[in-house]
Each structure stands twice: as C-alpha cells, then as structure tokens.
Amino acid sequence: MSDSVNRPGPEVKRPTLIPELRATLKQINLTPESSRSRTNEPTIDVILQSEALTREILSQVAIIAFVGQSGTGKSTRAIAVARQNNIEYLIDDGLLINGGRIVAGTSAKKAPSKMESVRQALFVDPTRSQVMRRAIVENRPTAIMILGTSDSMLEKITTNLWLNKPSMLIRIEDVSTEEERRHARSTRMNEGMHTIPVPTMEIKHEFSGYFSDPLDKIRSRLNLEEGGVALDGENERTMIRPTFSSLGSYSISDEALLDLIKITLSDLPGYGDVLEFKSEKRTIGVVFTLDLSLLYGYDAQKVLHDAQQKIGNAVEKLTAITVVSVNIRAGRLVHGKAE
Fold first, then answer.
1. Model pLDDT for residues 310-320, shown as the tens digit of each residue
2. What residue ranges define each of the domains in the chain, with the CATH number in brackets?
C-alpha cells in the first residue's frame, strides 16, 4: 500500500460564501418583522425611553457570530465573509460598522490598557451600551455580524446590548487555513499590528496608535480618486498598532501640522501668512482655529472659504486625521507677501 494513502491531506479551506449562512440569511429576510411597516411606530426617543419597546426592536435583529482567537486574522476574514453574504453591519471591538463607515462606538483598540480594551469591547459601561443600542434601533439592520474571541465573549456582548443569541456561529477555522492563521499570528506577535475593519480615514484623530503603511494608504486613496481600482478588501480595513502594544505609539505635533497647512496654502491666491494656529482634539476628530493675513485686492470671503477647503482636504488625505471643522478668521490685511 502506498504511503500517500495514510498521509493526511492538505487542509481544505471552506469558501467565503458559506451555503449555510446564505440559507440562514434568506430565512431571516423572510420574517414578518423585517418587512412590516414602520409608519405607525413610536419615535426613536419614545422607543428608547421604554426598555420593553427597545428590547422588542432589538429582538428583530438576527445575530451572526464570528469567533476566532486574537491575532488569527479574524477581522480581515470577517470583512470578506460579510461582504460576500451581503451582511452590511458588523460589531467589532466596540464599533458598529456599516459599509466601511463607523456608525457608532469607540474602538477598544484606543484604550490605554488591555484590561480597559476588553471592557470596551464587551460594552460593560452602561453609557457605551446605551449609545450602541440607540444606533442599532435607529439603523434597524436585518442582521449583524459580531466578532469575538470566544463564545463567552459573544454571550457577554449580546447580553449587554440586549440582542438575540447568535442564530449562526462561524469560526475562523471555517474560512481560513492554518498557514494563513499562522501568518496572522506572526504579524501580531512580531509587529504588534491589529486590524480595524474600516478605511483609515474613518479612524478618530486621537486614536492611540499608529497606522501601518500610511504612504500605501495615501497612494491607494489617490488611485481611487483617479479612477483606479482598489485591491479586494484593502479599502475596507486599517492596520494599526495600539498604544497598549509594547512596540510604541504614533503622534503628529502641532508644529508639523502647521508646516503642512502653510505648505498647503502657499499657492492660494490672496493668502499671506498664518498669524495664529491652534488645534483642539474632540471625540470624533480635531478642530483647527487659524488667524490669517490676507493680501490686499482679493475677495476676502473667497480666500477664507478656499483656505478652509484646502486645509481640511489636505490634512485628512495626508495624515488620516478626521477634521471636524476648520475655523478661519482674517486677522490682518497686507499689501504684499513678505519674502
């Protein structure tokens, strides 16, 4: 008998499009609750004031669990499975995500410690869980894929958010090979990198970590703006290194931002110089406040408006910072630029 008969065959990876998942979602979409009219429903505020009404609405959301050990490529694989099966909403590490956009929540990877990161991911804090429940009630997803490292973690998340128990469980082993998981673990252990399933430009300004390959992200963004095609899934995720990783952190000084702004405005007609500059961190991004000197003979309102647009676009494109607003005031009128 040949030795090859007893030798175990190669690990077979299941296709991303899981037949059982498709069948489950088809049944979910046919339920009366998902198709009933909402014309006569109470307002969102009225619903949220009643725990009974809130639980009733949340009970109509089907939950798909995606479980995998930390560092095995769970977030990356979940993006592909959700996209291929038309699941539009995901909950991952404290975030509610729809189509690559953050709907609600704060990334647990922003936490200053691993312990706090776990608490945020589980929605232990009543305020965080309340904010997430409101977002779900407002958006009314038919199904949500929740990512977790264990069955116990999924149970805690669904309990804290008043959601149903998972109607289907997908494990990372179902959609990836051992070699792929080994590579993901190596990246986590050796480089401290984590994946967030949203584009880089969605990450908040005060995110306590740094972005992997920022120049590649910028090139990809510029390529898309010029009509190019992004790599499959690459525009839907961000590789970062959280602060609680022992390998360092990422920051941009105000001086560097000021230099970037001055360079951005250097070719703007009517712009003279930056007289005052201040940046203020907010929960959802950063606010810039500037006083500019303007050149005599130009439409001041147009110059200020164009400066706002250029600053916001340049900072978001080149630094991945979310710009909430750019407040500009004309502080001085000059007859010519200083050399």
1. 998 888 777 76
2. 19-197 (3.40.50), 254-334 (3.30.70.1350)
